[in-house]
Specification:
alpha+beta; 57% helix; single chain; binds 2-acetamido-2-deoxy-beta-D-glucopyranose; five-stranded mixed beta sheet; Glutaredoxin; 9% strand; 237 residues
Amino acid sequence: MVLLTVERRMKILFLVLAIFFTAATADYIPPPRLDGFVYNNPSSSFALQDTVLIEAYFDPLCPDSRDSWPPLKQALQHYGSSVSLLLHLLPLPYHDNAFVASRALHVVNNLNSSATFPLLEWLFKYQEKFSGAQTRELSRASIVEEIVKVTTQVLGSSYYNSIVKSFSDTTTEIQTRVSFKYAASRGVYGTPFFYVNGFLLPDIGEAIDYNAWRKVIDPLVAANKGTKNEDSIHFFL
Ligand SMILES: *[C@@H]1O[C@H](CO)[C@@H](O)[C@H](O)[C@H]1NC(C)=O
C-alpha cells in the first residue's frame, strides 16, 4: 500500500516536471527584446522613422560575412545618423563552432555593448582559429576556452570571471537560440543576408561593395531628407 502511494507520488512528480520543462523550453519565444545588436549606437534606441534601417545577418565564422563587413562599415560611416544597422546572427550548422562564437557576441553584448562589434571584428580576423579542418581534432571545451580567452582580451581581464559565468549561464544560450530562430523566421538561410527597411536586398550575384551600398542607400536617404521640409511637417501635423 505504502509503496504504491510512493510510486504514484513519483509519477505525479514526473508529470509535473515534464510539464514544467516543456513549458520552459517554449517560454523564450517571443523574446523580451527584439533580437539584434545596434551598431555604434548601443544605448539609445534608434528612431526607426528617421533612418534607413539595414539589417545584416552574419555568421561570425563565415568568410563571406567577414568580407562583406568592411564595405558596409564604410557606408555606415559615410551616412552617419541617416542609416542604422541592426546586426542579427545566424550560426550556420556547416560552420564549425559558429554557435559558440555567436554566443560569445551575446556574452560580450550583455557585459559591455560597446565591445560587441570589436569582438565581431576580432572573430572575423581570426576565423581560421575556430573553424575548418584544423579545428576538427579539438574538443569543444578547448574551443570554448579559446573563445573565452579572446573575449577576455576584448573586454579586459577584469571581466574574466563574468565571461566564464556567462558561458555556463543559460541566458546567453537562449539569446543565441533566439538569434537563430529569429533569422530562420525571417527566411534567412545563409550569410550574409541584408534587409533594407524590411525588404530583402536584391541578390546582385556578388559580394556587395561600397559603391553598391551607395547605389541602394543614396536614393532612400535623399527621399527621407525630402520628407523633412516644412510642407511635409505640416502634412504630418
Ligand atoms: C566597453 O568597451 C569599450 C570599447 O571596447 C571601452 O572603450 C570601454 O572602456 C568599455 N567599458 C567598460 C566599462 O568596460
